[in-house]
Amino acid sequence: MILFILKRIGYAAPVALGVSLVCFLLVHLAPGDPLSAILPVDATAEMQAQMRAAYGFDKPLPVQYGIWLWKVLHGDLGNSIATGRPVLAEVSRAVGNSLILAASATLIGFTFGTFFGFVAGYARDSWLDRVASAVAVFGVSVPHYWLGIVLVIIFSANLGWLPPTGAGPQGSGNWWPDLEHLRYLVLPAVTMSVIPMGVISRTVRALVGDILHQDFVQALRAKGLSEFGVFRHVVKNAAPTAIAIMGLQLGYLLGGSILVETVFAWPGTGFLLNAAIFQRDLPLLQGTILVLAMFFVTLNLLVDVVQTALDPRIERA
Amino acid sequence: MTTTLTPVEATASAPLPPVDLAEAAPVQAGRGYWGSVLSRLARDPVAMGAGIVILCIVLAAIFAPLIAPMDPFKGSMVRRLRHVGDATYWLGSDELGRDMLSRLLYAGRLSLFMGVLPVIIAFFIGSGLGILAGYAGGWVNTLIMRVVDVFFAFPSVLLAIALSGALGAGILNAIVSLTVVFVPQITRVAESVTVQIRGRDYVEAARVSGAHPVTVVRVQVLGNVLGPVFVYSTSLISVSMILASGLSFLGLGVKPPEPEWGLMLNTLRTAIYVNPLVAALPGVMIFLTSISFNLLSDGLRSAMEVRQ
C-alpha cells in the first residue's frame, strides 16, 4: 500500500509541475505587458524599464519561472496589486468559505444523488426510474447560476424566508457555524448541489443496475438471504466508486464555484477570482488559480488512494 | 490516472465499448450503419422531442430578423420592465425597455454560436491529437497525453474562467478558452478508442500488408474512432452552452448591448424584485437548449449502442 501511495505521488508530481507552469504562463497570456495594470498610461520608457527590472520581467521566461516557482514553494505567492496584501493571506481567508459551501453542496448532492440512483437502479424502467432519471438530467443540464437566481426570487424576494446574498449578517466576511449563518448557507449550497446530485445519481443508477445483474446477487438470493441482506451487499459493491465520484465532485465544485459565488456574493475564492479578473490583479488571479488547481491535484491523489484502500478489486499496481 | 474524470466523462466514457465494428468498417456498409442509427433514433420519442426543440431554437435564431416583432436594440425608458403577457410586449420588456421576445430570439444567435463552435473546433483538434497519440504510441503518446493530464488537473469551469480572465473579455477569447477546455477531454476519449482499435486483427493485417500509416488511419481507424468520439462530443455541447453563457454572465464574453442569454440574465438581475418572471426568462432558454442537447446526445448514444 505504501509503495502504491509513493508511486501515485510520483505520478502526481509532474502533473503538479505542469499545473504550475500553466498558472505561470497565464499571466503572460494577458494582452500587453503584465505591468500595464500597475503603470500609469504616461509612464516614460525609463520608468517602465525600472519597473520591469524590479518585478524581474526583464529576465528570460525560463529564469522568471524558476524564480517564481522557488518563491511559491516557500509559500510566497506575491502581493495583490489592488490591496498590496500578500496573495497567500487573501486566498487562505477565502478558501475556507468556499470549502464550507462546496462541502455542504457535495453532502446534499451525494445524499439525494445516491437515494435517486438506488431507487432508479432497483426499479429499472419503472415510473420511479423515469422520475429519478429526469431529476438526474435536470441536475446536469440546469445552468446553476440561473437556478440560484430563481431560488432567490422564490425564497428571498417572494417568501422572504432566506437571505438572498452574503455569508452572514452585516456583510460578515467569514462563515461561522451558528444558526444565523446557516440560513445564509442554505440557498447557495442547494443551488450548487444539483450538479453532484445529477452526476452521482446517474453513476449510482448504472452501478446498481450492473451489480444486480451479477451472478453473486442471484446466488445470495438463492441461498435465501433477505432483500435487505442483498441490499447491504449492493451498497458495499457500489460504495468505492460512488465515494470516489463524490471526492472529485467536491474538487469540481470548489474550482467551479465562481458563478454561484458571484450570484450570492459569497466571500470565497470565486468571488476573489471575479475581483482579480476585473481589477486586472494578475498576481491574485495567478495565486488563486494555482491554489485551487493544486487542491484539485491533491484531492485526486487522495481519492485514488482511498478508493484503492476501500476496493480490494483494484490492483495496487 | 484512472479517476481523473470530468463529471461528463465519469458517466459517459469509461471503457468505451466499440460500435458494431463488422457493420461500421467498410465504407459502403458504413452508410447502412448510420442509416440504422437514424432509424433507431427516430423511434426514440424523447430524443426526437429534444431534436425538434433544438431545431426550433436554431431556426428561430437564424430567422430572428424575420420573426422578431421589434428591434432588439431599441429601448424606451417609459416602457421598462413590462410584464409577460403585455399587449405590445408579449414576453415583457427588459430593464431598458427593449422587447424581451425579440431579444431572446436574437440572443439565440450568439449563445448557440458560442456554445456549439468550441465543441466543433475541439472535436477536430481533439480527434486529431487523440488518434495521433493512440496510433503512433511511444514518445508521441507520452508527450500528448502528459500535457492532457496537466489540463485535466484543472476543473473545467476554473480553466475556462482563468483563460478568459487572462485573455480579457470578448467573444473570440471566450471561444478560444472553451475550446482549450474541451480539447483535452476529447483527446483522451479519442486516444483510448484508437488504442483499442489499433490492436484489432484487421488493423494489424493492413499494417503488415505494407499500407502507409496514413492510409491505415484513414481506411481502418478513422471510421471506427469518430463515431464514439462524436457521441462524446455531443454530450459536451450542453456543458459548453452553460459555460459560454456563464462567461457572458460574468462579463467575460459578449459585451452589452448585444443580446445574449447569459448577459441578459446578468443585466436583469436588478429586476428580480420588480419583475421576476422576465428576469428568469433568459435562463429558461439556456436551460431548454442545454437539456435538449443532453437528451439528444443520450438518445444518439443508445441508438449507436455506445453503452455507458
Automatic annotation (TrEMBL), chain A:
Superkingdom of origin organism: Bacteria
Residue span(s) of domain ABC transmembrane type-1: 95-307
Recorded topology in the membrane: Multi-pass membrane protein
Keywords linked to the UniProt accession: Cell membrane, Membrane, Transmembrane, Transmembrane helix, Transport
Protein name according to UniProt: ABC transporter permease
UniProt xrefs under Gene3D superfamilies: MetI-like
Pfam families: BPD_transp_1 (PF00528), BPD_transp_1_N (PF19300)
Keyword Cell membrane in record: yes
Family: Belongs to the binding-protein-dependent transport system permease family.
A GO term, aspect molecular function: dipeptide transmembrane transporter activity
CDD domains for the chain: TM_PBP2 (cd06261)
Record keyword Transport present: yes
Location of this chain's protein in the cell: Cell membrane
TM annotation in the entry: 12-30, 99-123, 135-161, 181-200, 242-264, 284-303
GO cellular component terms, A-Z: plasma membrane
Automatic annotation (TrEMBL), chain B:
Organism: Methylobacterium oryzihabitans
Domain of life: Bacteria
ABC transmembrane type-1 domain boundaries: 108-297
GO cellular component labels: plasma membrane
Compartments it resides in: Cell membrane
Matches recorded under SUPFAM superfamilies: MetI-like
Record lineage: Bacteria, Pseudomonadati, Pseudomonadota, Alphaproteobacteria, Hyphomicrobiales
GO biological process: transmembrane transport
Segments crossing the lipid bilayer: 46-70, 110-137, 157-183, 229-252, 272-296
Sequence similarity: Belongs to the binding-protein-dependent transport system permease family.
InterPro entries membership: BP-dependent_transpt_permease, MetI-like, MetI-like_sf, OppC_N
Pfam families cross-referenced by the UniProt entry: BPD_transp_1, OppC_N
Bilayer topology: Multi-pass membrane protein
UniProt keyword annotations, A-Z: Cell membrane, Membrane, Transmembrane, Transmembrane helix, Transport
Name of the protein: ABC transporter permease
